[in-house]
Structures
1.
Amino acid sequence: MKNNHFKILTLSILSLVGVSSCTDLEIEETDSIISDGFQGLADPSSTVTNLYGSLAGQYAGQDNYFALQEVTSDEHLIPTRGGDWGDNGLWRVLHTHDWNGQHAFITNVFQLWNGNQLQASQVLDSRSNPSATNIGDASFIRAYSMWVILDNYGQVPFRDTSLPSTSVPEVLTGQAAVDFILADIETAIANAPATQAASGEANLRASKAAARYLKAKVLLNKHIYVGGEPNGADMAEVISLVDAITADGYALQEGYFDLFLPDADTETIWALEANTINKVVMGLHYNNTSIQGGGWNGFSTLAEFYDLFEGDAEFNELDANQEPANGQEERRGGVPTIGVPFDNQPYASELDGYVNGSNVGYGFLINQQYALDGTPLKDRQGAPLTFKREFKDGTGAVNFINNDETTGIRIQKYAARNGEASISHQIVFRYADAHLMKAEAIFRSGGDPTSMINDLRTIRNTEELLGTVTAQDILDERGRELYQEAWRRNDLIRFGQFGRDWLFKAPGTVDNDDYNVFPIPPAQLLANPNLVQNPGY
């Protein structure tokens, strides 16, 4: 990979984190009043602000949380291209499901998101004298962070801030963990402000709509954590929660790729001020972008995921009006045969390293790529820059290593042509997901959500509507709508497909549910004897 870019951007992201998290959730002195253990925060509001900054840093990168949710799925993989992206197998083992507890991203996510939980608990401690707004924010962040740990690791260490800092955190699992998280969400709903859709900056913090969305997400996945089948009462509540979000004015909106700009829209329920540049350059070729310094030429997608979308399997072109052509749906995007000037792009400027415009399309990029003036681009060896469906080594054999510069279809959701280098706005909760959660809850309750699925497909300008939908239809529609938004792993697990076979999957991990959760890092097991290593590790 391009190590110079990776290091610079990673450092910039880590600078946003704003909190160092001990492996045993040990309370560290920040703005706390310390005498005998934790005694309260002097300024809980500043800690809340720091927490949102931490979340932005944790969410912005192409590594850590994003990698665990996407690279472990059929949606993303990073083949080794010559000397690039080898990294001692760091990326490959995620896609093959051949990881262990020493993996850096698995360790980092456990530390960082548990660190969020601890700081939120400090805010919520009565000795910090939190305001109602502080309580709403901190309860929401703690619930979200604990849910991330539960969903990824199956058990959540929790430190009671009223106990001595030397005490060992208790560990919550199953129903107890779900109940704790749901109680925090109820507190957030009671204390967070009500926001209307298209509220702009108001959607950068906790709101009643964001808390209701999170509760719906927890309930939809609850049977994964506690065992058994989806509960009818839980599904009914998911439907009710989404209806309450809709009542606040949130709704599906046309213009798919416009949703990922900072402009106010009716779909953004919660976003973070997280820079989008990593999501732009991570898959682009060195010669494929007008961003100064070029792309990283790493992340790609499997052909089988690309084939979920309407359109020609080998041809993905935009027409003269920069609209999808050749029968492909809007969400699949396309490759422009000529670049787009930045005259009408408010988020792009020469200050960001752009020259005159962008030669990069939206969505999925396949086959020949073009320069701003329409000239076909070439790779660094002078061969046509054509992104390919296959992953082949120098001998022509399908292989995860020794790929050339052009293997793999690339993705641009946060897009270079929008001037993403200057944008710090990433969506975390979006109404289309809530819409699909409601449809899924109806389906799991024995109802027929076909009209809801087709409503979404219609607004996304698909050419075909579905007949009576199946579980596979719902999963596929979630893939088409929510790709690169860090939901694919969670969705595949809920639909029982995280263990299915896909290209390069390690044979011993196929149909093995042990990999539905990650291992507890060994250092955590040593620090907290209440933690137990997950089965299979």
Note: Confidence is low (pLDDT under 50) at residues 1-23, 26-35, 350-355.
2.
Amino acid sequence: MARKASPIGPHVLALIEDARVDLARAALAVREGDNEPDFKLPEDVPDLADEEGVEAFRQALVETLSDFDRDDLRPAEQRSRRIRALAEKKGVTSLTTIVQQQLDNTRSQEFHRQPDELCRSIWAYLHERETFEDAESFHFARQFRDHGKLYDAFEVELENQVALDAAAIDEKALASKIKGMLELKPEISCTVKALDLPATDTHPASIMLIVRHGGPLSSVYDHRQDGRRGTIYYRPPNEATLIYTPSMRQIEVCADSPVVRQTVSDSFAEVALGHDISQKPLTWKRYNLSRFRSSLLLQPPEIEGYAFEFARVIEAEIRLGTWRRKLQLKVTVDDDIQEVADRYLGARNIFRRAEAFSRITIAVAYNLIGDEKQRTLNITIAGTKSCNLQSKPDPEERSLGFALLKEWGILSAFRQIAHDDLRAIFPQLVQLHDRIEDEVSGSYLLELGLDPKRLIEGGLLERCDRQDVVLIEDDDVDGEGAVKPSVTQGMVKAVGPFGEDVGKRPASDVEMFAVNAQWLHETLMRLMKPLLSKRAAQILDPDLTLVGAIQIDEADVPVYFARRLNDPNAAQRLDLMLRARDTAGVGIVFAASEEMPSHLGPNVVMPLLSHLASADEEMLFARGGIELAYRDGLSLARGGVSPRVVRTGKQSGTLFIPGREPLHLAGNDQLTIFERLVVAAAKGSPDVQVKALMEGFESRSPQQAFRKETWDSIRDVYIGKGAKNGYWRLLLIAQPTEAVAEPTEEVTV
């Protein structure tokens, strides 16, 4: 007989096996909500010196928890994972650092009295929860410093060096400033906590701020004991962690939202550093090290006022597959690092196939024109967001270093795009957001009329590797060709499938760029705000956002923003989601796509770009046209006056039934099935035999034309069994379905 798999997760099991049993039991007994089960763990903890008793107690814990399923154990598994994260590697240092900052001598001694790292982490979780959570924030910030998409590093140009520590920061004033800039409602609290971080081997002394505030009101469905569905409303906690390093004049911040990252950084600079953001905005810089894949050699550029003797890479560090594996090559300034790499690592060495460059050090020898003194400058770039230049005390040296990196194509700096400029390119930004892929080519951006350099500076794009293939449309060659370097500056060479030369094309056309989808989304939301009477941004799906409400005829109409509606599968998924939100009433779905259904759930869909105001108007949108389109679609949103199927494309359409929400249909099979049912209902003979209903299709049942979740949501609502076995009918409001036996023709999927 096969052995039953244990439902206990690895982190809970490790806690039971490795921690002192009294602490392990206490941690597993924690319940943070009424929905969590009471495990009724054994209470008689044995004498810790009794090894046999301790081992038996551990086994009793395992046996008790084994009676529960994985869902019941999931909260305990998550808590155990958090505890173990602060008991291993850098998590230990993170917890110890925050404990030293926050606990008094008595509590700190109690913490250190615990026998090992795991026990200390459990003790902090049980007895000093706030300190434990602050240590988690610090630990996550350290991880994001190394590699994280939720991380930004801003640089602040201060007139004078500011001596600052955690005690000097006005936490209440800073919290008030952040709350105002984020436009949080009065009932949403915002707290700021400042801590001093001592210097380590890898980072100078810093100050850490933990910012916590409530997010927009949200809800989830709850399955109740009686089988009914209820709704639980909650306000999710949002958190941002900021680290300021005075010696580097650098602000590092971690948060889910790029807008929050910039807002928190700006607020800190104004309140804590006395920096005038309006005169000298904070800037972030991105470092693109991909050029070193093809060559580790650098040529000194021409910069007015400087003469260069050489510029050489003396250190290169790459990551091999994962961030934990790295390869580092260091040479002297007299060595040619390219030659050393080719000699000892092979002509086509690993640097060309690296997962990512994590560190590059460049040595530059130069002198000022008219000055015989030879000078040197070392530039170290760590990853995409960190460079040692900001810590250079000489502003002229800093300026030269950044100029060199810009000339080599390594550096791009953040520069906020003006509101009027964003308005001017709003249609192109919507089209960019509507793409299925999050990478775009330079040629596509050229078609849209967008300047990639400006979008990179504004944080909307990031540079990627160039395309390695292009489409060739030539009299002699038709298909894909490989992209190869060209001796002509600014051009690349296209090579056909048999090595034939098929011409040059601009290198900018084959450059690839990654869309910063989150920043682009928030930019579009910010531009849509003036249209709304109520703002309540809530991301319901990666392709659907509740934006707020607009007032029409003295009623608040929900407003959504949807993208990728030209994809039938995406449209059907969002239709299912919006039909589940039917209590919100008839709303408006602004579509980024031009091809779209007319309705999604009980909502009128309208193309966003069709309702833009003229350029000379103050508002970005023509509100009158939006109201008119809403009123025109209102009747159909409630089902219309008679059943019908309206095709809006070759593979998409909408079913309308009076009194029911419109149903989006994707694919010819779905459309044809309901068209046949509508015709039968109109003739007064609503029942259609399954053979006639599925005529011309490979499938033998209407169920097979739909995804399972869609079928479950429409069966016995829009379509039901007929009066006879093997028949189906369209379900109208006044025509309840009859209880009959399962049709023999139906094939269960």
Note: The chain is about 30% helix and 25% strand.
3.
Amino acid sequence: MLTWLAVGTVTALGGGVVLRQSLAGADEPAARPAPGGGSGSPAGHRHGTGAPPPASGSPRPSAPPPPPPPVDQGGRKWSDAGGWGGRLPGPGSAVRITDRVVLDADAKVGSLLVEPTGSLVFAADRSLTLASSGNVEVRGTLALAPDGAHTHVLRFPEVDERRFAGGGMTVVDTDTGLWVTGQGYLRLDGAPRTAWTRAATALKPGDSTIKLAAAPTGWQPGDELAVTPTAPPDTDDFSTSYDLVTVERVDGATVTLTGPLKNAHPRVALGGGATFGAEVLNLSRNVRIEGTENGRAHVHLTSSRPADVRHAALRWLGPRANGKDSWNGKPVTEPVLGRYGLHFHMLLDTSRGTVVEGVVVRDTGSHAFVPHASHGITFRGCISHDTWEDAYWWDGPIDTRTPQGPSDDIAYEGCVASRTVFEPNPRGYRLTGFSLGAGTGSSARDCVAVGVQGATGASGYEWPETSEGVWTFERCLAHNNLENGVFVWLNAEHHHTVTQYAAYHNGGWGIEHGAYLNDFDYTASVLYGNAAGGIAVHALGRDRGTVFDGLLIDAAGQSDYAVATLKHQLAGERVTLSRSRLTGYRKAGVAFRATGDGEPDDIAVLDCEFGGAKGSELWLDPEAPDPKQILFRPAGQAQTVSLGKAGGGQGLAGTPWNAATAPAEAPVPPRAVALPALAFTDSAPKTGRVTGG
């Protein structure tokens, strides 16, 4: 066996792999205790999980995290054979770095270990690729921070997904990817690019230029763009009609493409002051971490030192393995436990202050962004595109009786979940772009969920079962998802608020609200042209009752009803729809459709306007049980009536509600309609380098 040299070591693979793996775990404790169980479930509520992490509650430090260290370009050069004992590392080498090394030439190795005393920094003024057949483990420093004219790539070209074992805190030699462990420091610091902005005009098939809502920063010829679908849900492929195009030239806010668009991307006027063009996502970055299309790697962080991950493109990550099931005669694949796109694993409070900015995770076989039991992480201007499983997620509960472990103070700012898929799609039960899980102090602002696939209960944003988190949720958009915009399925203990939300052209409901009992306030929001309707109400109130107030619900001719009640599993407090405008429905503004095997409706519709060209304001399904109470007071009127089973009679003023009416008292005096005035941004938030710029 070769002697390990202080300046760095190269050994042949074979026995060297085992030796490298042994050294990787030697003489350094884990960053924190590893509770029993694995790194999380492959698909959360769909497939179970390992043991949940311990409950949060440790003190939150008041001091900000230390500033990032400077990138030291003063180490020895990788290309200097003398630093390696006379022989440069090669494709069969297990490389161990214990000192400061600057990568100044393309290289290929068998594996790489950067010890706590070592660092590997890519030269900023060169385009460089480091390829590794096996794991890259960072216990010291790894920095990819090129200038704006060059590109840095860490590639895993020989991944065999069949060998992956999955698991928790420790490095697994067969699970090829980038591991940041111990007190390792990872810096991915690419040149800033505007992550996404919207088209300023309608786009047509054959167009080869795109006029953007704002001039983008950092876009270059050769950048790859994804143009999101915006067509109505009665259009073929309404949730999948993306265009992937390449930039030829950028002139201010006008982008010229190397080829024409194939699909139409209309601008959509929702009302409430909001008109949306297609999002144009820039998928290119000059820092890249990637596997291959046929061999997906992963990024796994357990280091107690906060990482700096900015303006990087992570591609072909998230390995999958054949499961026990089959579909149409072929094995159904499942994600490998804990091997995701960008995975912060059980860091607890040591991750506080971490910022992930302008990062793209694309073409990935599992979850894209995973802050699992890791608190205080901000994701700003990030994009998940064409990824499998819930895109923004952390480990779900082991069953429906066990609460999810929390991640506190997670912030999604101007992030996009685009084309989230599942295999096979008919089994994509409750697939979502953003899983708004357990914890406190978290927020989602100015985010977009588009092109999420899946089946029953799938959505752009989900408040998942047994995973109650208290989120600030505002100015978020869901459109052209195959199913719902928002899906709530909580028996909630806390009060929740959704405001300045917009949903258009989804294949299901703008909001599907369940499960049994909870208290939500939905305010100042617009639901437009969703195929099933604006709102489905499963849940009755828990303590205060759920309120939908000041909404514009325009079915745009796509659905029979603007709002419909469905099965109420448990009796609860009243749900109120107030000060809203309902229009564009084919049959009725509000349909009361509680089922006989559940509890009856307890709903108040107060001070609302109705503008359907067809149909009536209300309709009581003759198959529904007699309601506990339905209160109705149209906008501009003082009289409140209650609705009951009509026995074939007519309603107030001859309107065919299929209901009998009687005078009633409303809980509040008449109020004016309060239509929303949306204030959305048309571009991702501005981002910068770790060191400024």
Note: The first strand starts at residue 9 and ends at 12.
4.
Amino acid sequence: MLATSLLGRLRRRDPGDAILRRAARLTIVASVVFYGCRYGAGSPMLATYGLFGTIAAGSFAQLPGPAPQRARILVLSLPGVWALIVAGSLLAWSTWAAAGGMLVIGFVVAFAGVGNPRLVGLASAFQLFYILASFPPYQPGTLPQRLGGVTFAIVLLAAAEVVLWPDPVPVSYRQRLTQAADGVAALLDATADGLTHPHAGPGDRDARRERAYDVVAAIELGRNPPEWAPTAAGVQDRALRICAAALREVLVEADRLVTDAPPEPAGDLAAAGLLRSCADTTRAAGRSLAPGAPAVLIDGLDTAVGRAETAYPVGEGDGRDTSDVPRLCRDATALALADQVRVFAVGARVATGARLHGEDATSGLFEYARHSPWRLYWWQFRSHLAPRSAHLHSSIRLAVALALARVAAGVLHLTHGFWVLLATLTVLRTSASDTRTALRPAVLGTIAGAAVSGGLMVVVDQPVVYAVVLPVTLMLAFGVGRLLGPVWQQALFTLLLTVVFAQLSPEGWRLAEVRLVDVLLGAVIGVLVGVAMWPRGAAHDLRHNATRYLAANADAVEQTVQALLGDAPSPDRALDRVRRRMILIDSSYCQYQFERHDPHRQQVNWSAILSAGHHVVPGAESLLRRNPPGCLAGWPAAAVLLRDSAGHLRSAYEALADEVAHGRPAGPTPLPTGCAAELDRIRPALGEADPRSVRHLVEVDRWLAGLADTLARIHPPAQGDSAGRRGQP
């Protein structure tokens, strides 16, 4: 009954047997490598590096992609592994030399992930290769054995990834984007029908709307595994992030069009035709992300946009009639939606490797696509060499902790000082609270494992027994222990190390004592460094970066309005500032996802705050393309209206930034407004303006209203509020 209960518990925690399958694969490879090197070749050195190479690459490394891709990454990482082992072996002659190398290499390896956070999964494994080689005995002559053992292990593990029970390939981020594009396209078709047939049953449109929100929510970075999320600095990952942001904005604009649908049939509106073209382009762009699919063509959308723009300022009246301005509101929203669809389509082309041409190649949003990957990575590194970079903080913290642990192990002449650094690496987290949380299972598990191991070493002193039980302990440590929890995992890992070293260098029951002392020392160092250096982790940096990010958005909005009124030049520098600060807040947010959050502190809708810049930047670019700087110059009534709206938005951004920084409730947030409410604001300013100027005013005002909607999504209206009719992405 106990065995049945335990098996049921394991299956519930590992429904697809992914962890047990991975543990079985690792057990087979580690056993073959260790037995072949220790007993076949008769070399403890070869066996040590072979076994720990298997454990580091197979357990500590979290690699992205399907099995063939993971195998390729393992093989391609070999030169880096060799370099780390050579460096560690050559610096092992002195404690201080090894510690200095640990400080430099620890930082470089950790900080290298800033260009591609998915490579962070390799960082812990790379740290282990240097750590293992940097301890005495100082034997440069054994380098061939060390490199040979690790190479044998990694190559065999790469082959096993493909051959032995390969993991099923999960739904990729590109596939999720395709599903989201199909859902949004279906909603756009229904919205177009609603504009021309407003009395049609809303049931189908509501169902499509609900599905669209569900599939768009699935492309949030926080809802995808880190190894699959597009968080790298490269061209394709940047393009995928832009695609996701554009789809969210398309969904918001479609919701706004539903709200502004005419009460009576309006005939064949230009907006409806444009929406149908947007739906076709969105669907085609999403499907173009599949491997081998043809690139999406944007000519049809451009033709539809041009047709809509031609019909845009022309109505039954001269642009000042109350029957014409509502149409201008709807057409402005449809054109804003089409701009976001175009951003999505261009982003899909970039993500699939197609070259940009024409105005797309000069757009600030896709300017990065003209640069080499090395330049993009350098920009990413440079952006994170900043005092408020969460990634910089965590890299320095880890490097200092490992260097101190290496000094302590060398000064105290610990026989297995490797375990001190391994414990520090295991315990140390990006915040002090997470470090304290990891401390308890590490200590309790090590005590339990040391007690069992010590008793086992007293009773059994035959190495052949430990050779027989090695596969069992491997399976327990990396399969069962991981499923049962951190305490069990640490205890079973301690038992595994006892079984291994009983065959490499038998020391009796004192091996368990040494293991316990080393882990306790490493845990203490990790806790002390975690408390002393940036203890609040990414949460504090995220709040600070979000404050500066919101301030940059407010500046960009205000300068864009001033440029349209002819009071300032083009806001290119302000928009660039938003893009640069977006890099830091993205990094802080990714790290924040893996930290424990204070339940007593006010929680923030971070995904909505991140989307604020994605609305400002492409929206301002599109706005300035159709409404050149100075297009509203000489219209005092429009200037008063727009400056008032921009001032209210700036106050809302500042209030939100103050709330994010200090946890205080924000001031009044602008409520989302429909076309009818905006007409009441615009009508007094119309006067004797010409139709084209009315068009410019309507479009700028709708953009500002969209930004107010973004802020309203950060603070959703209370239940029953008139604005509550809109879904929150």
Note: The chain has a mean pLDDT of 78.
